[in-house]
Amino acid sequence: MDSSLIVPLPSPPLVLASASPRRRELLSELGWSFSVEPSRVDETIPEGEPAASAVERLARLKASAVADRRAESCVVAADTVVAVGGLLLGKPRDRAEGRAMIGLLAGRTHDVFSGVALAWRGKVFSASERTEVTFRPLSESEVRGYVDTGEGDDKAGSYAIQGRGALLVTSIRGCYFNVVGLPLARLSLLLAEAGLSLERQWRFGSR
Ligand SMILES: Cc1cn([C@H]2C[C@H](O)[C@@H](COP(=O)(O)OP(=O)(O)OP(=O)(O)O)O2)c(=O)[nH]c1=O
């Protein structure tokens, strides 16, 4: 067939339902244009809820909350927690909790779980992704020094792999972007599942 006869379908407007600057940066780096509308949902995880289900449930909740007011758009949301020794670590309440978290992570391997959800045309598609991250051993003063940089204050597990936290990480297994808060390849698969092929994803937001 003459390829000039194929008219590409336009991409739907894309909305990122997140207040996270990291998630915004990751989508921008793909060259996508999108608007940002943070959701304000209760992010409490009940004791005993498995990490993978919790992050997926919260991502769905965030996407649905924004989709309710943006029916014509494709809404993306995510949630990230760190799991270590049977504990789930969200964002630290203060620096003391931050030090306790980094102390727990030092010299061992933990899991980072992100849930990602996509709400489009009345349906919600979702998944969760796990990445193993290993920290090198740290002395008490190294733990204190890192937490005092402040970069982990608003991050799950109290660290940023994309920042100075990289100096603590000896290896990772799995998706790097999942650790930063948005598993991009997983998101791409969800978009395809929703009917937005990779061909359409290349052009997200372009007119
Ligand atoms: C482990 C890790 C987490 N994080 C961040 C990603 C998330 O922003 C944050 C986890 O908190 P979340 O509650 O998942 O997200 P958020 O409150 O920042 O934003 P929103 O709910 O509006 O989408 O931790 C990093 O940036 N780097 C890391 O290495």
UniProtKB/TrEMBL annotation:
Keyword Cytoplasm: yes
Key words, A-Z: Cytoplasm, Hydrolase, Nucleotide metabolism
Highest taxon above the source species: Bacteria
Cofactor(s) of this protein: a divalent metal cation
GO MF annotation: an example: nucleoside triphosphate diphosphatase activity
SUPFAM superfamilies assigned to the protein according to its UniProt record, in alphabetical order: ITPase-like
GO cellular component terms, semicolon-separated: cytoplasm
Reaction it catalyzes: UTP + H2O = UMP + diphosphate + H(+); dTTP + H2O = dTMP + diphosphate + H(+)
Family: Belongs to the Maf family. YhdE subfamily.
Name used for this protein in its record: dTTP/UTP pyrophosphatase
